[in-house]
Amino acid sequence: MNAPDQQHGQRSTVMIACLAAVYIIWGSTYLGMKVATEVLPPFLLSAFRFFTAGLIMFIIGMAKEKEWPSGKQWASASLVGVLLIGIGNGGVALAVHYMPSGLVALLIAAAPAYFVAQDWLFFSRKRPAAMTLWGILIGFIGLFFIFNPFRSGATYDFPAWPLLVIVAGCICWTLGSLLVPRLPMPRQLTSTAIQMLAGCVFTIVLSVFLERDNWHTVSQMNLRTWTAFLHLVFLGSLVGYTSYSWLAKNAPPRITSTYAYVNPVVALFLGWVVLNETLNVDGIIGSIIVILGVVLMTWKKK
């Protein structure tokens, strides 16, 4: 095997590992945020989560990469952090506080469409392949089959405004992801740390203006809350977000975006395995449809 082939093989291995991390770990963060926001306000949770993870990651990045970012790199990574973590992830934490986590996952599943549309209109200018478009449609149909809000007996009691928060968060998340390979970014670990810390600053400012009256709930954190918080920090942020950050910089958008379809399916099966939740026929059929959609989205002739 020559050097280019070996390098391509290593890159493919890293991509598969990062996709696996994002698929499986992020599939569990919906539940983690739902549990943590039972006690903590959503934006304060996001600020604590990403301050802790960002500080740890910055220390690791400085120790391993030994390269202080330039001013432009700080600005670029901070912008991406505000879009992805501040608005994108903070919006999800806010939405799951008011809405069923499964329905939030279904709405976020529109992310691949946002990826393809924004990449086509503003960045690559390349029209998406028919196979990709079919994959997006089929994947969303599968998730709708699983979390159908109009199913007989399905009743939801929540305000409508979180729906707009999710849409705005998805748009900002996909925009930030598409900007990563196009901006002067620091090295991988340092970049991820700066993004987390920038998202922390953004969400703590929102918390000051919107949640100050609820800050006293920090003293009410119990074992259940701490377990969810530590899961979000060490697995959801340090492992999951770092893996996503690598994908955003190195993988095609059509592949990176598939996490939005796989996460709800993983969450469904984790609930069945860990929490003994019911896994019905609709869930199994919908999951198979989702997998078919992901296969079509990632299909490549070469």
TrEMBL record:
Pfam families: EamA. Residues 17-147, 161-298 form the EamA domain. The chain crosses the membrane at residues 12-31, 43-62, 74-92, 98-117, 129-147, 159-180, 192-209, 229-247, 259-275, 281-299. Its main location: membrane. Keywords: Membrane, Transmembrane, Transmembrane helix. The keyword Membrane applies. It is found in: Membrane. SUPFAM superfamilies: Multidrug resistance efflux transporter EmrE. It is a multi-pass membrane protein. Belongs to the EamA transporter family. This is EamA family transporter.
